[in-house]
Amino acid sequence: MKNPLYLVLIVFLPAMLAHSAPFARDEADAARVAQVKLENQPIPDQENGVFLNPILPGHYHDPTVLRVGEDYYMTHCEHDNRGPIMWHSRDLINWRPIGRIESLAGLGDIWATDLIYHNDKYYLYLPLRMRRRTTPEQHLSFSNYVITADDPAGPWSDPVDLGNIRGIDPGHVVSPEGDRYVYVNKGVVSPLSEDGLSTIGPPEKVYDGWPIPEDWVVECDCLESPKLFWRDGWCYMVSAIGGTAGPSTSHMAIVARSRSAVGPWENDPDSPLLRTWSRDEPWWSQGHGTIIEAKDGTWWMFYHGIANGRRSAGRSTLAVPIEWSDDGWPVVGKPVDDDGNYLMPKGENVGHGMPLSDDFSSDTLAIQWDYDPDFEGRIKSGGGSLELEASGSGPRTATRIAQLPVNNSYEVTVKVEAESGVTAGMSLLSSHGTVGIELKDGKVIHTRRGNPAVPDSFPENAAWLRIRNVDHDVTFYYSKDGANWSKHEWGAALSTETVQRIVLYAAGEGEATFKDYQYKGL
Questions:
Q1: Angle ∠(178,179,184) on CA atoms, nearest 5
Q2: What confidence category does residue 452 fall into, taking pLDDT thresholds of 50, 70 and 90?
Q3: pLDDT at 6 over 60
């Protein structure tokens, strides 16, 4: 039985995504929130005056957060081919998606970005490793770019190369005199043009970071992700050091300050600002912090971390309150209880989250799905069906769409119909391989082990498929009617080290149809 709120969601969601401000709760938002709860997704707002991290569970890393008047906006490092999602909030804890940055779709790898509002225009500074350039020398080389928009929901401009500054993780700052600068990793800065679209001087190293004690277990020095802001005549720079992919205790956030936008910089004597001190803590590899002032005058830091033992879930977005010492240094605030809850900031609740289920009623593929732009002409959504024109020979090379799970344990179900010669299925995909279940020529097959196929036959080449992931242990199910289920005799284990994605795919030649995709946290 379809959830009636789900149909409301499909009808109203496109209109909701088209506007970011002013915000007004409507039926679409109510349906979105109800669907997120129905899917049993983690929700940070505990509805009793406190919130519990993470703010966005799953692979939402390198957050950059911006306040403009009553509204907050957030986006992340690119992990989708379709372009990063832009999120909107009015209380810093409840976030709703308002669109994807489509001008970045399919261009390449994007690392830590910086979202800026200056002179009535939005800027996103980003390091981009282009995959589609014209010469071998350009292929897979990093440059720093900027895109602009009049509305954070888009449309966004095509990326403009900033010019003479390499490195990664650009961070923007404006001096009291109105001069603009862009920092990158390793403490390097360049002046920017008045319009912020190009560098106008040579890069200069002005900051050396903070010396990590020799007995600390880290991956590297890796000074990166400068995020800058002003307070009481001081320019503060929050940076990440220690390495993002190393041991659980490696990554951390440090802060330095200066009376000038370009230094000299002095480090906080109580460094680091934030760190995982022991692998027994609930969050590993905490870093990449952005500090902002809320509209009520309180201060907050957004950053990412890996849930203890859950590298496969990626780096989630977290938030903590920031207090200020008597001598003007930021200090991370404490939870209000032993469960790790923090007091909610003041502000309007826009409703939290993004549904992951999809009945494919919309003619536009829903925002939760990622796909390679090369598959653009092979993907069709609408009328209750997803149609994939097959290609490739398996889940890694097939025409596919993907999404990021947000629960540690979850179950996904979909109906599959496939033409003769087409292999169509559902898989959990990571850099370590795939595990899943698929339909081909009337047989349901385990994707990793292949034969034996299940004893039942599906002469109409249609079946319901289900994957259940419980703490990295995976079981597979199939059904002829979507009501009576059989378990495949073989299961699988997921890697605990690499991020997993859920994919629907079609391989071979011909077409496959998917219907009534359901996601539920366990």
A1: 130
A2: low
A3: no
State whether 267 and 319 are in the same domain.
yes
Distance CA 87, CA 99 (A): 8
For CA atoms 37, 39, 45, 49, the dihedral sign is positive
pLDDT digits (tens, 9 = 90+) for 181-227: 999 999 999 999 999 999 999 999 999 999 999 999 999 999 999 99
CB 144 within 8 A of CB 166: yes
Verify that 480 and 380 share a domain, yes or no. Answer: yes
Q: Hey, CA dihedral for 431, 433, 436, 440, is it positive or negative? A: positive
Domains held by the chain: number: 2
Q: Which long-range contacts (CB under 8 A, 24 or more apart) does 37-40 make?
A: 38/3, 38/5, 38/520, 39/355, 39/356, 39/357, 39/519, 39/520, 39/521, 40/407, 40/520, 40/521, 40/522
Q: CATH number of the domain at 463, please.
A: 2.60.120.200
Q: Would you say the pTM of this structure is higher than 0.90? A: yes
Q: What is the pLDDT of residue 15?
A: 35
How far apart CA 47 and CA 229 sit, in angstroms, is: 31
**DSSP assignment string, 163-183:** -S--SS--EEEE-TTS-EEEE
**Is residue 367, in this structure, part of any structural domain at all?**
no
